[in-house]
Structure formats: C-alpha cells, structure tokens
Amino acid sequence: MNRASEHFSPLQRVLHWIMAVCILAMLFIGVGMVSTVMPKYLTLVSIHKSLGIAILALALIRLAVRLRYGAPALPLNLPEPMKLAAVLSHYALYALMIAMPLIGWGMMSAADYPIVIFGGWRLPPILPQNDSLHSLLWDAHYYLAFAFFALVLLHIAAALFHALVRHDGVFESMASVSTDHEAVQPAE
Amino acid sequence: MPDSRRSLPYGSLALIAVIIGAGASVFAYTAGWFSPQRLTPNKMVAAFAPPGGPDLGHRRNHAKGICFTGTFDSNGAGVELSKAAVFEKGQYPVLGRFNLATANAHAADPTVRVRGIGIQFSSPDGQVWRSAMIDAPFFTVSTPQAFYGLLLASRSKDPDAMKTFIAANPEFANFVAWAKSAPWTGSYAEEPYNSLDSFVMTNTDGVQHVVRWSLVPKATVVPVSEDELKKRGPNFLEQEITQRVASAPQRWTLVLTVANPGDPTADPTKEWPADRRKVEVGTLSVEKIEAERNGPCRDINFDPTVLPTGITTSDDPFPAARSSAYAKSYDLRTAEAKDYPRTAPGAKP
Description:
The complex is a heterodimer. Chain A is built from 5 helices and 2 strands, in the order αααββαα. Chain A is mainly alpha-helical.
C-alpha cells in the first residue's frame, strides 16, 4: 500500500487553504509591521489584530472538524521517523494556531492597550495590566512567531517532498479539488 | 514505492530547496534584515538614548514625569465634530502625566525646554482617548525621518552636525527660534499643551473634519527667567504642581481647531492661520497629583493613536511613527521593570 487511502473532507481542505493564506499573511505582516515607523505601521497592526482573531476562530472550528472527521492514514510504508515528524509537527501547528492569537490578545491586555478589530469592534482584556506578564507574553509571541514560520516552511517542504519525490498521495489528500473524499486519485 | 537503488531525484529536491529558500528570503526581506537603512522603531528608540545609555525601566523619552487624576467636563459642543462619547455633555474621568521632553529620568527641571502632558479620557462605553502633547506651538521637523536625523545630529560628535542638519531641514530653525524666545514659566499649570499632529473627527452624520487640539491653561501665565528657574531646584515643577493642586484644582480649556480645505494637515511644523475656527469643548480639571513611581499613569502608554470611535489618524505621518516607537519604549521598560524604583504597594510615599 503506497498511497493515502482517502482525502481530507472538502470542509477540511477549504479550511486548510483559507488558513494557509491567513497564517502566511499574518507572519509576514507581523515581521513587517515591527520593522517600520511609516503610516503603514498602523494599517498593518490593525490587520494583524483582526486577522489574528479570525485565525483563532478558524483554528477552533478546524480543531472541532478534525476531531469529528479525523485525517486520512499516512502511507503504511512511510518511515517511522517521518511518521513521527508528521504527527508532532501537526500537533505543534494546531497548538500555535490557537496559542499565538491568545498570546497576542493577552499581551495587549497586559499592556492596557484597547484591542480594536475589524474597524471598531472592541475586545475585552483577558488579563490585567502587568509588566512581567506583558514581557513574558511579548517574548513568547516574538520567538514563537519565528518558530511558527520555520514550522510552516518545514510543512511546505514536507508537502512538496510527498508530491514530487514520494508520489504517495499525501499531498493530494489535502491539495485535491475533488469533492470525493473516498476515492484514490492516481498520482500521475 | 521509491526505489533506493535509483539515483535520488536531485531535480525535485533542488526545486523544494529553492522554494523554501525563496520563502525564507522574502520573510527576511519583509523583516528588514536586508534593509539596514530602513527606519525601524528600534532604531528610533535607540537614538533617544543619552551617551551613558537609557534610564532603564523608564520611558525612552519624556522620561521624567508626575501623575495626575481629574475630570473632563464636556460642554457638548464637540458633538458637532465627533461622535466620540467623551464630547457628549457630561463629566468623564481623566488620568495623565505632566512630563519633561528629555530621555533623562533624573533631569533637573530648569534644564528642559519642552514640557508635555500625557492624558487619557475615559467614557462610560469603555472607550479611552489618549493624547500626548507638548507646550511648543509647532513641532521640530516635518517628517519622522527628519526627526531621527535630528536625534542623530544632536548626539553627533561632529561639531558641524547640527549646522548640516539645519541646512537640510530649515524648518527646524523656527523651532530653535521659539525655544530661544518663548517665555519660560514656573508651573506645569501655566503651560498650554498642543497636539501638533492633526486627526480626523467624524460626527454622527458621517461628516469629517481635520482638527488639532490644545489644552489652554486657565491659570495666569507668569513668565519667569531661565536664571530665576535655576535657583528653584531640580524638582521645582513637581513640587509646585503638587502644592498647587492640593490647594485648588487646576484647569485647562480643551480647544479643537478645525482645518480649512488646503491647510497643511500632514506637517506639524506648519501652524494653521490664526483665524481658523476654534471650538471650546470642555474643561479639564486636574484634581490630584501622585508620584509616578506608584501612580496611575506609570503603566500607561500615552500612544496618540489610541482613539475612540469618532476620531482617527489623518495624513500626518507622526502619530504612526510615535505609536511604533512608544510601543517599543513600553516593551523595553516593562521588560526592565526590576530597574524601576517602585515603592511597595501600601508603603508611605
């Protein structure tokens, strides 16, 4: 047995690709905004907050969908270290998708900054003002962002490795546009 | 099944490496790692540091200050310009901080030319409006980049650095002229405080106006010579405002100045003509003074882009630059909280 036995459900595929765009945008906006004093700083920060909350909501929906529908089995002949890497990296991706927006929200709360998203909707603080909490969360947000981006690159590299080198159907299980999630698509 | 005896698919592996390398490079470019000339908040904030290094745990500029609390009595006139709740007739709590425009948290009061105020108005809808203003009637330079240049020139060892800077930024000569000629006063209560930056106000009908605002003191302004001030001691401003507010609340009128079409809204060095419409929207009463070290202003970043619904930034580039730099300053000083001379909660000041 050389190929994944099925596709992710269409809902999972749609969520994955929407979130892929959102998360990549988020990471680029994040490093871009903290490196400029130009007027675009305010625009980028504003998008970053709104998009962060959107990602949190999508990630929670996605986690629920994943728990409900599961995931296609990995190919049986995938070497054990790669299987382990696949499983662990997906735990890490889910953890970061949910934790990063919460850390950002907490960091803003601990600095007593109002949190305005989508042009006027105000979120309540989730923590009281506190210097050491703010510093801790700021450091966590900063360093985890780079870890997140590294993990995204690893994820893309692994996906391309499945698609271009192993031809084992793993890439197609998420990339296929087919609405049928039972049938196996021939890889080539 | 991949055949281990077959040669590795070098083409595919190279393609993957190129894609990942390109992604990482674009990320690094976005972060500014290939753009050493980019003006970042880190560089801006670092440029404020005096030769001996910054005062750890303190704001990186306007480092010396004292907290106040009080009320804003809104007369309702501001509703015409902005739908912000704070302009509806009523009383709103205010907290703030009188301060000196210096990076030295221990500067002697008579040595600092520019005085400022950080202020936060709160409204019952939970929104806050923060503003940081100074007593000068116009700003030093026209752009954040020029301001960075001013910081570098003022710290430069090159004796011609300031001359070169003024030649390239002639508007700074106006500020120098103001600094040399404007009278000094002996009190924070006698200073006007000006937003200098312009903002856009939107009323309930959606009509927008570009405005600047000022706090105009009700106290009588008594000019005092610089030499006389130097005799009053290093903390005379803090002592004076503490005693003065203890005996009576100190008041300012909040005045909105409305731009005419075509007025220079993006350049805080350019004053608007004196005949521009001014709307008095209420009275600020400062009722209590507290030392900063355990006072209510200590943990507040008076970021001028913290605005209620009904006020937004304009085409003035400074509020964005200030927001980015103030955030950096806040991140630094909160990380250095152990270096800040706090008093234990409950301790007698």
